[in-house]
Amino acid sequence: MSADHRRLVPRTDAVLAEPRVAAAVARLGRDLVKRSVTAAQQRARLGEIAPDAVADAALAALPPSATSLRRVLNATGVLLHTNMGRAPLSAAAVDALAVAAGTCDVELDLASGGRGRRGAATVDALLAAVPGAGAAHLVNNGAAALALVATGLAAGREIVVARGELVEIGDGFRIPDLLVSTGARLREVGTTNRVHPRDYAEAIGPDTGLVLKVHPSNFTITGFTASVGVAELARIAGAHGVPVVADIGSGLLVPHPLLPDEPDAATTLAQGAHLVTASGDKLLGGPQAGLLLGGPGPGAELVAALRRHPLARALRVDKLTLAAVEATLTGPPTPTRAALDADPESLRRRARDLATQLGAAGVDAHAVDSVATVGGGGAPGVTLQSAAVSLPERFAAALRAGEPAVVGRLEHGRCLLDLRALPPGSDAALAAAVLAVGPAPRKG
Fold it and tell me: So what's the pLDDT on residue 217?
């Protein structure tokens, strides 16, 4: 390319002043847009694009938003996929985030003009959703809820817990490491596969801070096994005046017919647990949060004491979480609940319609039956009838690179796009993403 031609490359300030580019600056920030403009100018100098195409090239290279996060269509068949942020928020929760994102009355009593109780409406919504709960508190995730309980009730003392419940969850995070970090000592009882009431009774003593029941939410042990339920633990620990804490994990608040073995908060409290801890971004279908629920009487008193603990301030949730949790609890059914309750025959019809549409465009697509799972450390071993669109394996990588990205799963040399975790309203976007990849090129 000649020097004269390079002189035709527009100046940076001129490109930034172009109305479309200026609008992108207002939306994404000057630094990000300027980097894109500079890269486009260099392409023009190298002769890859014409000088008058710099603005178009810069705009085309910009991300859709100022965050590096990308929208993903979850076609894996895992309802709560940890790597994709677990539960997608409901429209009501998203709207609530928009309200909370600005200045709001998170700690302001508008009637009096004085300070208000932070998160009162969210706590009230949580209590209304869990029959039998006497008090509730929120922290920033499920591990934080357990850490607050262990610190407040057992620092320098013992936590009695079954060996088979000292679990490791995602990314190498281990429950026993968390508990020991709070200053508590673990008193392990039973064996990996069997624990009996007498094991707890013999272990509880003057130095016991609490008895902990942990739901092994991401695995199952079958065969020669034995465990002790919450009701029996409450009887044993109650004789010594020791609280029972149950970490149920997935955040199921009340029983669900498809998940008969998944512990829920209401039932666990009714069985005698003083405190229940759980996550907000799993089966509850809300944002990341730690739920701390106390039974009536002594359990409620423990929640009140933990709320005043110095560590509670460090684990406090922000206004966005408070708003999203409240809207999740009081609004319409969440996407997670809709996916869990999806009718398998409706899923099959959607898969057939999509396969027919894609096949008409020359794509090798077939509707097939599929099996989905809950995921996110919930309901291990439970499978859900589902349906999927089966595509050639090459689509897997190509769909992940698209906008929006689509993530399916590989099975027997085919890319399956499972519809269980996808609402019907996403079918058009899913079809468009597949069509953007296109059919296989013809040979010869």
Answer: 64
User: Which stretches of 89-208 are DSSP H helices?
Assistant: 91-101, 120-129, 142-154, 175-181, 197-203
Question: Residue 94 has what pLDDT?
Answer: 98
For 291, how many CA atoms within 13 A lie in the half-sphere containing its CB?
Answer: 36
- Average pLDDT taken over every residue of the chain: 94
Helices within 106-196 (DSSP H only)? 120-129, 142-154, 175-181
Instruction: Determine the length of the chain.
Output: 444
d(CA 228, CA 106): 42
Give per-residue pLDDT as tens, 1-52. Answer: 455 678 899 999 999 999 999 999 999 999 999 999 999 999 999 999 999 9
Q: How far is CA 76 from CA 83, 171, 350, 360, 387, in A?
A: 11, 20, 16, 24, 11
CA end-to-end distance (rounded Å), the chain: 37
Rounded to whole angstroms, the Cα distance separating 337 from 283 reads 7
What contacts 141, CB < 8 A, 6 or more positions away? 279, 288, 289, 290
- Rounded to whole angstroms, how far apart are CA atoms 389 and 415? 8
3 state SS of 92: helix
d(Cα 177, Cα 143) in Å, to the nearest integer?
11
Estimate the crossing angle of helix 19-28 against helix 30-45, to 10 degrees: 140
Q: What is the pLDDT of residues 74-115, one digit of tens each?
A: 999 999 999 999 999 999 999 999 999 999 999 999 999 999
**pTM of the prediction?**
0.91
* Model confidence pLDDT, tens digit, residues 371-428: 999 988 778 788 999 999 999 999 999 999 999 999 999 999 999 999 999 999 999 9
